[in-house]
Design goal:
seven-stranded antiparallel sheet, alpha+beta, 60s Ribosomal Protein L30, Chain: A, globular
Length: about 250
């Protein structure tokens, strides 16, 4: 009887341990892009109030692009590391780190634990970036009709980027409107850095600007670091395009 009772106790302990064991984390991307606000709301309609604290979103494995409340600057998150550049006409002030008290009016985020890496074989012109990313996505089994994140590391070409300082220059150009708080702008024929982007068809005004299938932020080391919205950017041969492993 004692042996039988002991067996029962051991069995119960085994079941208990199995029930409390943490499940293994999945490395696959779940196909989800979380969003707080839309570009239309924040940039066109002037609804640039706080929608989410960046610290609530930024964690290991998270990649995100967005704008500060009041359109005061740009937010980029790469594997949980937050880069924030606050717009000024002369030069933005950039902070970098794993913790932040920043508040976002618009933020789009995806959690990706594992990436497929594709070496860019030949220079990609800015006008071909959208098509290039879609083509590579199809080649690895991603559906370009569903939004997905991507990352680029290495050489960038014909980079034109801005850092918001209260107003959106893309919107101002569309409306032929003079800005009272113009953004900081950077133009560089070549640069080394990173891109964090989203590819999304049929998402103009929501995830992407009008007429574009990508929403891309650049992160470059110039002058201690700078991040901002890449209005146009191409890729240099040898750069690495990273797509979610599904």
């Amino acid at each position: 009887m004692k042996t039988k009772a002991l067996d029962v106790v051991l069995c119960l302990l085994t079941v208990s341990c199995a029930a409390t064991k943490e499940p293994a984390a999945s490395s696959a991307w779940r196909g989800e892009i979380e969003r707080w606000g839309t570009l239309r709301e924040a940039l066109r309609d002037g609804q640039d109030q706080v929608r989410v604290a960046v610290a609530e979103v930024a964690r290991k494995g998270v990649y995100a692009v967005g704008a500060l409340e009041g359109l005061r600057g740009e937010i980029t998150v790469a594997d949980g590391e937050v880069w924030i550049s606050e717009g000024h006409v002369q030069h933005p002030v950039t902070t970098r780190g794993l913790a932040t008290s920043a508040q976002a009016t618009v933020l789009f985020a995806a959690e990706v634990r594992e990436w497929r890496e594709i070496v860019v074989e030949a220079d990609v012109d800015p006008s071909e970036l959208d098509a290039y990313v879609a083509r590579q996505a199809r080649a690895v089994g991603l559906d370009p009709n569903r939004p997905f994140p991507f990352v680029v590391e290495g050489g960038l070409r014909h980079l034109s980027m801005h850092v918001l300082a209260g107003e959106c220059p893309i919107r101002a150009r569309m409306l032929d409107k003079e800005m009272t708080s113009p953004p900081y702008q950077l133009h560089s024929e070549s640069a080394d850095g990173r891109l964090v982007g989203l590819y999304a068809t049929d998402s103009s005004g929501i995830l992407c600007h009008m007429g574009s299938k990508t929403h891309v932020h650049a992160m470059i080391e110039q002058d201690g670091g700078l991040t901002g919205h890449a209005e146009t950017v191409g890729l240099a041969a040898g750069a690495v395009l990273k797509l979610p492993a599904g």
